[in-house]
Design a protein that fits this description.
The complex is a heterodimer of chains A (137) and B (395).
Chain A: E1 2-11, E2 13-21, H1 28-31, E3 55-58, H2 67-76, E4 83-86, H3 91-100, E5 104-106, E6 121-126, E7 131-136
Parallel strand pairs in A: 2-3, 3-4, 4-5
Antiparallel strand pairs in A: 1-5, 1-7, 2-6, 6-7
Chain B: H1 5-11, H2 17-33, E1 38-40, E2 44-46, H3 51-67, E3 76-78, H4 95-110, H5 121-124, E4 134-135, H6 138-148, H7 157-166, E5 168-170, E6 184-188, H8 200-211, E7 216-219, H9 228-241, E8 248-249, E9 265-269, H10 271-281, E10 290-293, H11 300-313, E11 320-323, E12 342-345, E13 362-365, H12 368-376, E14 380-383, H13 386-392
Parallel strand pairs in B: 2-3, 2-4, 6-7, 6-9, 7-8, 10-11, 10-13, 11-12, 13-14
Antiparallel strand pairs in B: 1-5
The chains are: A alpha/beta (137), B alpha/beta (395).
Chain lengths: 137, 395
Amino acid sequence: MKKVVKCRSLVQGEAYGEALVSKEPISFYGGIDPESGRVVERGHPLEGKAVSGKVLFFPYGKGSTVGSYIIYRLAKKGLAPLAIVNVKSEPIIVIGCVLSSIPLVDGFPVKYLDVVRSGSTVRVIAEENEAIVVIEV
Amino acid sequence: MYLTKEEERILEGHEGVVRQRALEIVVKVGEVLGAERLIKVTKAHVSGISYKNIGDAGLELIEELFTSKGAFSVPTSLNPAGMDLKLWKFMNLPRTYVEKQNRIINCLRSMGAEPLLTCIPYLIEPPSFGEQVAWGESNAILYANSVLGARTNREGGPLALFEGIVGRAPYVDLRTDESRKPTICVICELRKDSKLSQLPGLIGFHIGSTVKSGVPYIKGVEHFLKDNYDLRLFLAGIGTAGGIGLALIDKISPEAPKSLPENVETVKIDEIELRESYEKLSIDLDDVDAVVLGCPHMSDRELHSVINVIKSKGRSRRRIIVFLPRSLNDSLSLVKLRKYNLEVYNDTCMVVCDLRAMGVERVVVDSAKAAYYLSSQGYSVRLMSLNEILRWAFT
């Protein structure tokens, strides 16, 4: 069965792959190792997992604005997520994704963070005026 | 979002790939913040300059902007870097660090930035009342909005960089009249003879961590802000603890209301609460490696009053390190003060340089902002007032 969720398109693009889901916010600066793409924040639900090549779901970004540079660095090294899906994006994530051409959507309802699970197959289609996230459940 | 013809041209790439990408970022951030249009800014101040903070990721991005022919379109100044550009040898830094920090500065300078390398650009090139600027660096944002009546949001390092390139920012929040009205009233009930009243940074920090966001109207603090240095310590404290970009201070801020605003919540702060904030920032230290001053940067006048105290008493028993902007005082000419145990540095500050490499682990500071950031970097920190420090340094 497929679940289709309408979202707001912030950075256009398409992605198809495995979801990685965090119900906690993510700080790219200090929270993710730019050399490996792994979450290194102590006690974070995704600690030890790599964001690389995944469709990354989390509610919103937090922490230092240097986080934008970390997203860009991950992308240059081929370690970036395939796409990012937020409940509410904020400037750190927006800037990082525009710089790195990573598809970004927000407006993903917080209750669906329980429907999509790490390992689910998802498709993100972000077009000029609207975006959808398709979850295969 | 509404865009002008000129902005559409930029977005279509007619003015080069860097301006296109920069405007795309400014527009997207504006959409996320709910802006309906952009506004032209007259100047920018970019934070996130220190190699210690932004690392290889920041260096690579800035180099790419430079090699893609990026340039600032409005006068753009820079926050402190990770070292004194002339006295870095005294700072005991690795060669690669020095080389990479110089690359960051050189790229930004080639793009047209003025490397003031200070967090107090408002004392050097102050914007005027009502002027729209794009500033990063929380203490500078608070000073511009609250003391000068200029207008900027808390832009963050990378955003101010792109706003400086396109000369525009989202017209939203503190840029609009409606968002510059008080949302909460803070009454300071501290006694004038309280020891904590000598720590304006602590009062600011406490207000920042209590109020967290919005626009506080602050009453009863003017007695504790005897000069511009105190005012800067106070505002830096507010900016450290919360997301506040404008504080309307009674008898100081040009936009402060004449009477208590109606229909807003009032909070009072007293000695007991302030004591709790103090305990969070300061630990008892019997001995320290250095006294560190200049967060925010000192002015030349303030440095010279410190120098006069020290000279009148002879060589300080404690190592004293001071940071201030090069445009106000070239550190090279001050090297001779080392015989008084006084080290002066430009271009950098205690928060973004590497004090540890300079043999400093335990510090005394007069700034709540410095206490907060140095503690979070693992230093042992004691917070004292400048007068207290200048007495203590000789005992």
